[in-house]
Design brief:
single chain, alpha+beta, Membrane-bound Lytic Murein Transglycosylase D, Chain A, Glucose Permease (Domain IIA), 10-stranded antiparallel beta sheet, 14 strands
Length: 329
């Protein structure tokens, strides 16, 4: 028992004490101490921030968010010879491909996406605000030369009474008759099959088949057949019908479209010259023009299509069509 009047001083555990004074050279520094109960809290406490860390943070420049890139502005592209919509779309990496390019510029291009002309202004990446291009007028037929007046007769010095002009007139008449017969022979209907149908070119040879795939065509495939035909080769109507159009057609060059008796339409493209005009009735085998290399082509040939309408995109197999009508191709 403690002595009376004296109190026992409670024993303090130095580890559990909150603060203990430590002297260093006369100075007193308060040091925080943690008991067993505070050890776990010390492990979870945030690390001390040193002056070096403060300086490093202050020296690091703040990151500024980069401004959003402005949207690309629409561009205007001028069509050059040899262009087609899928080629332009691929070269300029246009989203939506040639279909979107055509939709944006339909009023400029027209109803047929394969018929684009050099010099056309196409808007890339946005809808065009240009006015619709006027339709090209069909070429007018050249006026016939007025007949020359016959020269006055001159008496021959031989006294025979025959004139020099009469000799010249007879010669001219013979040559004119020969030329007329030659022209009639060229325009006369050629021999057709027993069914009244024939091939567009004699001894035709197909170089590019129908539906051949490729990016060079706007539709992604060949809509007709290409037939070997050097410039000036006679082209013939495959059957009786009526000429719907004859004239310039952009990428197709000089073109003739004939509505056949069964309601289908035959298209002849890249002609060097035309022998018929719109509204004219033709028979099977009749010459409708001469082959050539007008429009967007790499060489002379005949592009031949059969369609259910006069417009692009309604094509059917030309060879199958001709065979259905008894033509051996």
């Amino acid at each position: 028992m403690p002595a009376k009047g004296k109190h026992r001083r409670p024993k303090v555990n130095p580890i559990t004490r909150g603060i203990v004074a430590a002297g260093t050279g006369g100075a007193v520094v308060a040091l925080p101490l943690f008991g067993a109960t505070g050890a776990h809290a010390a492990e979870n406490a945030a690390p001390a921030v040193t002056s070096e860390k403060v300086a490093a943070v202050a020296a690091t420049p703040a990151k500024v968010a980069a401004p959003a890139a402005p949207a690309a502005k629409p561009k205007t592209y001028s069509v050059v010879p040899g262009d087609y919509l899928s080629k332009i779309a691929a070269e300029h990496d246009l989203k939506g491909g040639w279909q979107k390019l055509y939709a944006d510029n339909r009023q400029v291009v027209g109803e047929d996406p394969s018929l684009i002309l050099p010099g056309m202004k196409l808007t890339l990446g946005a809808k065009s605000t240009a006015k619709a291009a006027p339709k090209a007028a069909a070429p007018k037929a050249a006026p016939k030369a007025a007949p020359k007046a016959a020269p006055k007769a001159e008496k021959s010095s031989s006294g025979s009474g025959e004139t020099r002009s009469s000799r010249g007139t007879e010669r001219d008449t013979v040559e004119s008759t020969r030329a007329s017969r030659s022209t009639q022979s060229q325009s006369a209907p050629a021999q057709s099959s027993a069914t009244g149908w024939g091939a567009p070119v004699d001894g035709m040879s197909v170089t590019t088949s129908y539906r051949t795939p490729g990016s060079m065509w706007s539709s992604g495939y060949h809509t007709g057949i290409d037939i070997t035909a050097s410039t000036g080769t006679t082209l013939k109507a495959v059957g009786a019908g009526t000429v719907v159009s004859a004239g310039w057609a952009g990428a197709y060059g000089n073109e003739v479209i004939i509505q056949q008796a069964d309601g289908k339409y035959a298209q002849y493209a890249h002609l060097s010259s035309l022998s018929v005009s719109a509204g004219q009735t033709v028979s099977a085998g009749q010459q409708i023009g001469l082959s050539g290399s007008t429009g967007n082509v790499t060489g002379p040939h005949l592009h031949f299509e059969i369609r259910t309408t006069p417009s692009y995109g309604s094509d059917v197999d030309p060879l199958a069509y001709l065979r259905q009508h008894g033509v051996g191709v």
